[in-house]
Every structure is written in structure tokens, then in C-alpha cells.
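Form 7-S
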Amino acid sequence: MIITCNKCSTRYNISDGAIKKDVFSAKCAKCRNVFSVKKSELVNNNVRQNTGPVEIEDISSSEANKSARIITICNQKGGVAKTTTCLNLGVSLSLLQKRVLLVDFDIQANLTLLMGYKDARSFFDLISTDDGNVSKFILKTKLDVWLLPSNSKMTLLSKKHLQQDNFELLLKESLSKVSNYFDYIIIDTPPSGDFYTLNALMASDIAIIPTPCDYLSMQGVSHIVNMIDVIAKKSGHIIDYKIPVTMFDSSSTASSVILDKLKSEHGGHLFRTRIERDDNVRESQIVHTPTIFYSKESAAGQQYYELAREIAAM
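Output:
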């Protein structure tokens, strides 16, 4: 079950068996606030399969703000924690009172599955409609973030649109219609530098390139940086990039060597916060729960929250 402090919004995961009373008192370890909790109002973190779509509110709402900062999570190498970073970063920004839209632009739809959705309408379905109203396809999730899902039809997107003029602007044009509603839009991409990653980068202000400290992942970072340079030269679209080190093992000599090489090659583009290797990450995925909600003692969960603070301060 999830308990949320009503003062600082810190969230804690506790087992169902620990709750004996219908109404009880809790004390926040972060701000020391004491507050009352009703068992009936708690969110069961083992139930993440949403029963149906909840569409985004009218984007003409008076709550609409200035244009969102759009971030692409990308690396040509797979297995570097792109989707994990997208989910945990998005939820952590939400905990910082930011309005966040996650976009699953990966044909594998792993982000969508992790958030408890299956067979939801995707970006492919969106651009196949006559009116192209993106707000009809954005779902408000139980995690206090919004989601534009992916599904199996996304594999057809590049085949259908690759030859059309300005195909690389498809995602940018759609997101521009809702950009003023969010503080951050974070796009998850497949492990490649193809149609999908290009579309995501053309829509973005910044690329976040997660990488473990291994040789092949580091080469994937270089590929994305080169891609960013080509985009700037050919289109004039300037994209900043930042690198979070993921699955870091401080006891590994090889990790330390590659970390030094990353610092040498990319300097100020590295985040201060490093995400440690943590079994809580894999366990939390099984129950469709962000790591920071799954275990308050998770090192990676807290580090993703600190990474969000770094981004919010940029």
C-alpha cells in the first residue's frame, strides 16, 4: 500500500499486513509531519492494471502554462535503463509538483506495460484519425502523470510515413498541441537511431542518454551525440544533452575506468547523480510500481528523485 505525507507529498510503501486499524497515525521520516490515514483511501501498489482510459482535461483550461520542456530518453544500445529512467524520472518530477506527460515512442511498448496498460491507443492510432486531436489519446494514470501509450501498431508507423515530406516532424507537430499544458514531456525511444529516435529528438529541447559504465553503452552515447550534431547542421535544431550513469557498481574497476572516460569525453554533460545497481528496480517492475514507491529504502529510487531535482534546477 502507498502512504503519502499530506505536507511534503513524500510517498511510502508498506505491506498490507502492517495496517491493523481502519484509521491510524503516520509520521513522515522526511519532514516529521504526523498525519492521519484512512486504510480505505490507500492505493494498493500491487494493482496497477488500469480499468480504462481517463482522457486529459481540456488543454484550453485556465491551468495551461508556458510551453513544456521536452526531453528524449535515448541510447542506441539496449539494456541501459531507458524505460526505467523515463518512468522513475517522470514520477519523481511529479513528486516535485511538476505536470508530466510520458510518451511511449518505442515499438516494444515497455513503458506502457510497466504503467499497467495493454492494447491502449497509440501515436499511430492518433495520426490515423481525421482530426489529430492528441488530447483524446493521452491518459491520466494512477501515478499522477499522463501517458501517450504505445502498442503493436507502432511498428507500422515508419513503414507508412518514412517516405512523406517532413516525416521527422510528426511527433513534434502533435506534441505542440498540448505542450502548454505540461511542465515536462518525456519521450521513451527504442534502442536505435532510426525514424523513432529522430522524430523524438526533433521534438525535444534536451536528450538524456542513460548509460551503464560499459564499453558498448558508451559507444551508444557517442552515436546519439553524433546524431544530435547532424540534426543541428542539417535543420538548425539545437538539442542539449545530458548523461546519467545507470546501474553503477562502485566496486567494479571497469566501471570506474569507463566513468573516468565518460567524464573526459563529455565533461559537463554528465549529471552529478549516479543511479546505482539495485535489485529493487527489477522487483518494482514486476508489480508495475515506480521504484521510489516500491521501497523507500531503495538507493536507485532516491537517486532518481535526486536526478529529477537536478533537472528541475536546470
